[in-house]
Amino acid sequence: MTQQKISVWGAPGSGKTTFLAALNIAMIRSNLDWTVVAKNQDSADRLAAMTNDLTRERFFPKPTTDVNALDYVLLGPRRTRRKGWFFRRTTVTEQTRVELSLVDVPGSVFASTPFPGATDELPDPLDDLIASNGVLFLFDPIRESALGDSFDYFHGVLSRLAQRSIASGVSSAWLPHRLAVCITKFDDVRVLEVAERRGLITTDPDDPYRMPKVDSADAEELFAALCETSASGNSEMLLSGIRRFFRPEHVRFFATSTIGFHVDPVRNAYDPDDFQNVVPVEEGHRIRGPVRPINVLEPILWLADQLTADSPGRVKRSATDPRPSGGRPAL
Length: 331
Known about the structure:
This protein is α/β, with parallel strands linked by helices. It has helices spanning about 15-30, 40-55, 125-130, 140-145, 150-165, 190-195, 215-225, 235-245, 295-310, and strands spanning about 5-10, 35-40, 70-85, 90-105, 135-140, 180-185, 200-205, 210-215, 250-255, 265, 270, 280, 285. It has nine helices and 13 strands. A four-stranded parallel sheet has the order 1-5-6-9, sandwiched between helices. Strands 2-3-4 form a three-stranded antiparallel sheet. Helix 1 packs across helix 2.
């Protein structure tokens, strides 16, 4: 299986660093047979520190102020594939292994015009995105309603990516990346209210806490609705830009929360009258209870599955793989 690369993209404060921290927690909490393993000591130390911030210290990791190339291996369930040619063809069972390089850069870098020149200390973020097969685009609706600058960070990057793709000889108007659009801070009451007004809230019957969620099929509608609350009025062009630059089948939307909702300790269930999992403190915000990420693992698995599907010798699913056969992870 060839190496795949996923980059994290978003405006400052959109939750890139926190998302990376929550991914490890989501992996551990998941009943799926997936594990994230660091490829080097720096990535391992950073993952441990960020996980500790969320779980023990119960503070959000500090926003990124420098470039972090965090390299991991995503180990999944065992699958079978055909190996060899013609009469020598055999069936082998192997563990799914996907190389993931989550490149996190300060959001302000994406707004630089022009982008800073590449150096040993500051790689050109466009180089990282071009070298990636999949992209996590984090959209913070709370920031957008206050500042309205998501389109500023979004459109400039897409225009430069398209220009470089054409210059490299790519003839298609579509960018080749798979794009997972993550609507962050779903646990915020303002985001939840928009989803409720649109009738998009559902629950997972297998969730013991009965937390609200938005199905991926409805997350694009939520994205469009939240864009209407932009302070600048420009974010409505985000969806148009996504549709213009990416093939429809290469894009999927997710309503995510890195910390999840507060769970009533007595009933051990979601309480619609007391669900906020953050409380204001002098230093900013403190996480109130245990972290239970919502739709943090799913976009990574969807991207990994999409990228694996394009790899030579794609593996077939084993009977124990919990995901359906449609090429997407169960949500």
